[in-house]
Automatic annotation (TrEMBL):
<dbReference type="InterPro" id="IPR036249">
    <property type="entry name" value="Thioredoxin-like_sf"/>
</dbReference>
<protein>
    <submittedName>
        <fullName>GST-like protein</fullName>
    </submittedName>
</protein>
<dbReference type="InterPro" id="IPR010987">
    <property type="entry name" value="Glutathione-S-Trfase_C-like"/>
</dbReference>
<dbReference type="Pfam" id="PF02798">
    <property type="entry name" value="GST_N"/>
</dbReference>
<feature type="domain" description="GST N-terminal">
    <location>
        <begin position="4"/>
        <end position="85"/>
    </location>
</feature>
<feature type="domain" description="GST C-terminal">
    <location>
        <begin position="88"/>
        <end position="215"/>
    </location>
</feature>
<dbReference type="InterPro" id="IPR036282">
    <property type="entry name" value="Glutathione-S-Trfase_C_sf"/>
</dbReference>
<dbReference type="InterPro" id="IPR004045">
    <property type="entry name" value="Glutathione_S-Trfase_N"/>
</dbReference>
<dbReference type="Pfam" id="PF13410">
    <property type="entry name" value="GST_C_2"/>
</dbReference>
<dbReference type="InterPro" id="IPR040079">
    <property type="entry name" value="Glutathione_S-Trfase"/>
</dbReference>
């Protein structure tokens, strides 16, 4: 199967978008970065919906091949370029297990924790549930990273790339719980990833664009239209 060069990356300064930024920098690619301002509702424009009908960031257009969902993008690029994912053997299962732990656990619970502690704070039950669950997930991570050099096994890979996007936001997600101060192994791992040149380059993507920061009613309608 032939592959076309990567053309466009649709980006916002969200944890999931930064996963893809890190992957692209690790691979040494030079795509066109297309900013999508979600608080202005640009994710609902027809041109973007043709790439991701779910109206979420990030997404890519790889020579006419649309790929959306950050996890799918990382897997797609890892397989395409033959990097950051073991080719075979038991290490594949280990890497994928932790990769999907991030995708199905750390990501969604972090997002809900932020939503119910900063956006809609009127449910004590929801706030308690998601703050406690994200703390539990980080304890699992801390235990793992106390035993393994990298999240997905002995080598740096897509599990680490996926996690980095969310750990960048841990201080914000767990602001009332001390951020990473309770998870020294996660902190040490994060510091190690940040020594990689690709991490610095990916972090600089945030400086390229000015996105709307106000969470006013228009922004809430754009981001959570189902609530209105």
């Amino acid at each position: 199967m032939s592959w076309m060069p990567l053309v466009k990356v649709y980006f916002h300064t969200t944890p999931n978008s930064f996963k893809v930024a890190l992957m692209i920098e690790e691979l040494g690619l030079t795509p066109e970065i297309v900013p999508i301002d979600t608080r202005k509702g640009e994710q609902h424009v027809a041109d973007f919906l043709s790439v991701n009908p779910n109206a979420k960031l990030p997404a890519i257009d790889d020579g006419g091949q649309a790929v959306f969902d950050s996890g799918a993008i990382l897997l797609y690029l890892a397989q395409k370029h033959g990097k950051f994912l073991p080719a075979d053997g038991p290490e594949v299962g280990e890497m994928l297990s932790w990769f999907f732990f991030v995708s199905s656990g750390i990501g969604p619970y972090s997002g809900q924790a932020v939503h119910f502690t900063r956006v809609h704070t009127d449910s004590a039950y929801a706030t308690n549930r998601y703050t406690k669950e994200i703390a539990r997930h980080y304890r699992v991570l801390d235990d793992r990273l106390g035993q393994s050099d990298w999240l997905g096994g002995p080598n740096y890979g897509i599990a680490d790339i996926a996690l980095w996007g969310w750990v960048r936001a841990a201080g914000f997600v767990m602001d009332g719980q001390g951020g990473l101060s309770n998870y020294p192994n996660v902190q040490a791992w994060f510091d190690k990833v940040n020594t990689r040149p690709a991490a610095a380059k990916a972090g600089d993507w945030a400086k390229k664009f000015a996105f709307k920061t106000e969470m006013d009613e228009a922004a809430q309608r754009a981001m959570f239209p189902q609530n209105f």
